[in-house]
Every structure is written in structure tokens, then in C-alpha cells.
Design brief:
Order of helices and strands: HEEEEEEEE
Shape: elongated
Number of strands: 8
Helix content: 10-25%
Strand content: 35-45%
Distance between the termini: 51 Å
Radius of gyration: 20 Å
Number of domains: 1
Structural class: mainly beta
């Protein structure tokens, strides 16, 4: 049970923490760097995926809708919103959504794509510069 005099301070403490920089700022990236694994052939590829541009890996079509990262003075973290569609080997079959959601570079298991043949992991988000 919180004492009444402390309860009155709680809203001010929340505002103070929110405005003091206790939260991390995000920088919008222009492309995501992904690691893709074909479990059958053990082939690992690094994919550079620009925002809203589908990239093929095997039967998958990977589209990054948003990518953001922390500035250098913050703890390292990258986050990307991905949409992954499996087009399959049969061209008469309809494409199947296999993943749609956020991936985090520091915690790949939090939001992992489940597919019997392929794995995709977010490595980083980058600005659209050659040295990025």
C-alpha cells in the first residue's frame, strides 16, 4: 500500500522521468540489414533491404516497412517492422503470409519468424549512405 503523501508525488515522478531523457530516442533508418538462413542448404546470406522494397530470399519475399535505431550514446538497439510472404514453389498456389511484426536486433527470439525452411534475423538498421 502506497502512503497518501507518496501517492500524490507519483504523477509528477512519471512526468519527470518521461521528460528527463530516461527514454531512448530513435533514428529512422532507410534500410535494414538482415541475416537469412536456408536450413536445408545451410546457406547464410546477408540481405540489405531498403524500406518498402521487397527482396527475394528463396521462396520468401521480405519487405521492411520501418526501421529505426538508437543513437550512439544510447544502448545499442535496432528495430524493424517486417512483412514476409512465402510464394512457394507452385506458381498456381496463393502466396502465404508467414511473418508480420517487429524484430529487434538485441533480442531475436522475442519476435522470431517461424518457418520450416528459412530463418530471418535483424542485424541492424542503417541510414541510406555508403558508409552507413
Amino acid at each position: 500500500m502506497i502512503r497518501p503523501e507518496l501517492r500524490a508525488l507519483f504523477p509528477g515522478l512519471v512526468i519527470l522521468l518521461a521528460s528527463s531523457g530516461a527514454h531512448a530516442d530513435w533514428i529512422e533508418g532507410e534500410r535494414a540489414r538482415l541475416q537469412a538462413l536456408d536450413k536445408i542448404t545451410a546457406r547464410i546470406s546477408t540481405l540489405e533491404v531498403p524500406i518498402d522494397t521487397p527482396v527475394q530470399f528463396g521462396t520468401l519475399s521480405v519487405t521492411v516497412r520501418r526501421c529505426a535505431y538508437h543513437p550512439p550514446e544510447e544502448p545499442p538497439e535496432d528495430a524493424a517492422f517486417l512483412q514476409v510472404v512465402d510464394n512457394g514453389y507452385d506458381s498456381s498456389a496463393a502466396p502465404r503470409d508467414v511473418f508480420g511484426g517487429w524484430m529487434f536486433s538485441s533480442s531475436p527470439a522475442v519476435s522470431a519468424m517461424e518457418h520450416p525452411v528459412y530463418d530471418i534475423t535483424l542485424l541492424s538498421c542503417k541510414p541510406d549512405t555508403p558508409d552507413g
